[in-house]
Amino acid sequence: MTQESGEVWEKFAVALADMARDLLAQDSVQATLDRIVEHATVLINGCDEGGILTVRRGEVRALAATSDVVRRADRIQQDLREGPCFDAVTDREQLYAIEDLRRPHEKWSRFAPELRKLGMGSMMGFLLYTEDDELGALNLYSRRPDTFDESAQRAGWVLASHAAVALSSARTHQQLGDALETRHEIGEAMGILMERHGLGEEDAFAVLKKASQDHNIKLREIARKVCETGERPR
Which stretches make up the ANTAR domain (predicted)? Predict the structure, then answer.
């Protein structure tokens, strides 16, 4: 490694540390997703646009995007059912890239020309994952061909790895918060049933559970309705 390249990677490491702190400071999963793609356009040399998508049962879902161009690219992958980021999730490969969208691409013969029509020259996609949890794919786009060299790909892989950990942490934090809120609402609803309708603790919970099962509605929603109306669910 030359002194110049060493200095570049040192600056990248510092910026990556700043990104990690920024991602952990976000107060929601969506905010974390949005910041990941924003950081990618700053930290990855030549990156003009970025986005995150998931593919579940063949359906593409855009989670974050820096512009409408990225959302249109996601829709193209959905419609054609092909593309590097689609494959990154479905085939579990860590990296896919199209170096030059001007040249015919054998694997993505339909997707590549459509992406070129959107003004893109090259792209790469990374699987966002932790050891136990696959989360989707990070898409990076450049308007110029042959932009993402080996150094950019390595930087993108490092960024995607850090981003996946931050995203997993944000999701866990949100799930914990949702669970605590649900527990609070159920407890409040049980208290209302016990006080206003003369039920015991076990009977109050049984009423909520049965209403949830009978109406195929989440227990939390049943509890919330009881809290709002004070009425015993039918």
Answer: 166-227
